[in-house]
Amino acid sequence: MTFAEYFSGHATLLLVYAVIIGMIVGSFLNVVIYRLPLMMERDWRAQCHEFLDMPAPEPGKDSLAVFNLAMPPSHCPHCKHRIGASENIPVLSFLWQRGKCKHCRVPISPRYPIMEAVTGLLSAVIVYHYGFGWVTLALLVFMWILITLTMIDIDHQLLPDDLTIPLLWLGLLVNAHDGLVPLRDAVLGAAGGYLVLWGVYHAFKLLTGKEGMGYGDFKLLGALGAWLGWQAVPEIILLSSVAGAVVGLSLVVLKGRDKEVPMPFGPYLAAAGFIALLWGDAVSGQLFALWR
Nearest-CA neighbor of 23 among 129, 130, 115? Predict the structure, then answer.
């Protein structure tokens, strides 16, 4: 009996596995979301010193010689206590420790278990919608990268090339092997998604003298087009623009946010892409009905 045959008769078990694996991945995504921007900042500083022919800055006493996604091991930012395996069980460890460090009892941000739980639930949604297969596995990676990009953009207004470019190429590779859409549609989606926002960016800059978005947004929409095809690009643009406008206006009116303060657009693109992936046909039908 193959795995596909087994899980076809045990759908509930498959969803349970999806939640568990998703929460474990969500724990790792927390690390990526925190460390990747810091790793990039270190690289930028080193490149600037090299370009200007300046000596490398002396590391501070708290600086780490090795800093990547694997090292140093996870630890409490307050007391530096190394987090053991029993303290790193997604969601459960947070609940068991009542949201505090086991060593110093300083509160732990609830963002970590929330990320783990959300990643687990969205993983189950993907598996429920697409079943067991290699396309589902690819879509899980797609969704995990979107979550990571969303949180990094919220924190730093940054969509790293280290994530957007591989996401684009992975979408083309998936569709080159009979994935979601024909390869021709994927290529047109990648090019069209990038060029549409590139054109909007330059038109806005020409008219106002300001930059309305970053190049990472072009690449993210290009990646979404590579996965979902050119047909999904207008829907993603419309959904993300409407959602961004509603949230932005709400923040200005209700919370007095300065309208000149830039707002990340990546989270809205990612959310619109996820909606288009799961319910694109239904949403398109509703939009077409409203248009008529």
Answer: 115
